[in-house]
Design a protein that fits this description.
The complex is a heterodimer.
Chain A (H helix, E strand, L loop, with lengths): L3 E4 L2 E4 L5 E7 L6 E7 L3 E10 L2 E4 L6 E7 L2 E6 L8 E9 L7 E4 L3 E5 L1
Parallel strand pairs in A: 2-11
Antiparallel strand pairs in A: 1-3, 3-8, 4-5, 4-9, 5-6, 7-8, 9-10, 9-11
Chain B lengths: L2 E5 L2 E5 L4 E8 L3 E9 L6 E6 L5 E4 L2 E5 L3 E6 L8 E9 L5 E3 L3 E6 L1
Parallel strand pairs in B: 2-11
Antiparallel strand pairs in B: 1-3, 3-8, 4-5, 4-9, 6-7, 7-8, 9-10, 9-11
Classes of the chains: A mainly beta, B mainly beta.
Chain lengths: 115, 110
Amino acid sequence: DAGITQSPRHKVTETGTPVTLRCHQTENHRYMYWYRQDPGHGLRLIHYSYGVKDTDKGEVSDGYSVSRSKTEDFLLTLESATSSQTSVYFCAISVRRGGVTDTQYFGPGTRLTVL
Amino acid sequence: EDQVTQSPEALRLQEGESSSLNCSYTVSGLRGLFWYRQDPGKGPEFLFTLYSAGEEKEKERLKATLTKKESFLHITAPKPEDSATYLCAVQAENNNDMRFGAGTRLTVKP
């Protein structure tokens, strides 16, 4: 258990409304990630953060923004939700436990439906 | 561009019927290949990391192997509780990003 929580766990919203998803971690990890998961596409990286106020874009960042004002919280915002953003969103943290690379551990996910 | 392809998309086995899942990848310098298990409605759960061709790792009924082009997840004498989607991902030498495959949905019937 990497101590990751996501809120809300489920959300239904309407097209054009803003939506913010929250990821919270309890272990002070530097790297945090937001992914979306859709059938047939696997997990795709939206944005990631490598420290407070330090963020960068991933593969599918259009229509999304992120913020990280505290180490423990990473927020994902859909400025104006569209039906194509209906998906399951996962937050992850990156941990180095020996070896030469980091391992990502995932939160429980948020299921977002945009009507 | 880094790519990961998993096959088959879905696999149905009888309890005790061993089989393998495939993960083919192309990456500009492999830093690590990862296997995850995902149960319905939950986040992916880390299983293994493999770093170089020839490496093998085992956990209970699962064994992961790696070559220069693909990885296999061998499942020996599976049980119904092994039913899940298994995800493969690669990380390239030049960045921290991970590229995931679409997964293999495994169903083990009693």
